[in-house]
Write the structure tokens for this entry.
Amino acid sequence: MQLSLAPIPYFWPRERVLSFYREAAAWPLDCVYLGETVCSKRRELRGADWLALADELAAASKEVVLSSLALIEAESELSSLRRVVENGRFRIEANDVSAVQLCRERGLGFVGGPSLNVYNPRTLAMLVEDGMRRWVPGVELGQALLAELLHAARADGITLPEIEVQAWGRLPLSWSARCFTARAFDLAKDQCGFRCIEHPDGLPLATREGEAFLRINGIQVQGEEVCDLGPELPELAALGVDWLRLVPQAEGMDAVVTRFRAALESGSAPERLGAVNGYWRGEPGKHGLPLVPA
């Protein structure tokens, strides 16, 4: 199995993003995903900046994939997406069917991102025919459901893409046209003041009883738990998973990458440092273990 670094889901200041990826160039990663996947209003980095970072990481022997928005709402966003698809150098992670369509029209192979809805072999086969060469299943597809889907696809003679599973990080639960961060501060979405930049790991949301529950990240909602599939590495390998995806966090990401690389090289499953992924086990997420400090 190989290691990938997912796109940063949060809104960080420009210099923090640049510093993060320049450090990541030295980490034992095989692939780095770059780009904004949550909100088109986040413009600390422009298209040229992402491409410059991509060149730096490629020079450091990393595969680079440019990620698209998970929710396309405006013609301006579609125009930006076309420019990303037509970059001419780097593969695209299609997180919206619009990106799939643009890649298909141009005959470009792409990575199917976790926000695409793929729940049966026929959908998987259609996307493979469209050019999907790697697939990141949605986090709601646990071990049993993913195994069943892959088994059915093989039985139907479908050529499977590479499989990439999120092995570390908070789970994305939903996207919406409404900005939850703006709403939390009683602001209109178009006058949000970019408040999400003040919360580098998302805005914590507790229940009325004071229990940590969710993270608000602009138009995205995440689970509170930092989920860890490290101890499940043997079953991931048995399932035929090709890639382990690690989702960036504000602090300590180098140690996370080093831990997973050491586990892959030793062939042994590490002790659990994050919470149990309830989705993976087919159980409620709140049956997980204590949280990793943010």
